[in-house]
Amino acid sequence: MDRRLLLLAPLALALPGCEAINSALMGGVSSQPPAIVFFEGFSADIPDSAQDVLRGAAATAARYPAARVLVMGFAGPTGGQAYNQQLSQQRAAAVAAKLRELGVAPERIAIQARGPVSFDLVELESRRVEIRFGE
After folding, report:
1. Cα–Cα distance between 53 and 98 in angstroms, integer?
2. What are phi and psi of 102, to 5 degrees?
3. May I ask the CATH architecture of the domain 3-134?
4. pLDDT tens digits, residue range 67-100?
5. Is the separation of the CB atoms in 107 and 66 below 8 Å?
6. How many CB atoms lie under 10 A from the CB of residue 55?
7. Which residues contact 91 (CB under 8 A, 6 or more apart)?
8. In the chain, at which end, N or C, are there fewer CB atoms within 10 A of the end residue's CB?
């Protein structure tokens, strides 16, 4: 497992507003830790290195057929608010499309673009999509 995934997951759980998102969309119950896909620079193309993460997320969704799947896109701070909001939306949409391709029902998937991160992370860690599961 990627060391960055292990380090970022606890931080991601503490992001401001994530509790409200989990409560509103997932009934406040998180049955699995988030899966995280990291992206290159200013790209919304899913890297080949993320295929195992996506297959694992689809398998988790299959194990929990009643669970909602929240796909949250993030972007780095470079490029401005509007650009990064759009980029985070494109990243989330790309991951959601891949999850649908892997068999996750579209009605189970919610997408949220979080835009640029507002705290100091390593640039790579800010360019990500989190896949969260809940009931």
Report:
1. 11
2. -85, 5
3. 2-Layer Sandwich (3.30)
4. 999 999 999 888 888 999 999 999 999 999 999 9
5. no
6. 14
7. 37, 39, 44, 73, 74, 75, 127, 128, 129
8. N
What's the predicted TM-score (pTM) here? Answer: 0.75
Helix residue ranges, H only, 14-126: 18-26, 51-63, 81-101, 123-126
Q: Where are the domains of the chain?
A: 3-134
Amino acid 9 reads: A
58 CB-near residues (< 8 Å, 6+ apart) = 99, 102, 103, 104
Q: Identify which of 52, 36, 42 has the alpha carbon closest to the alpha carbon of residue 133.
A: 36
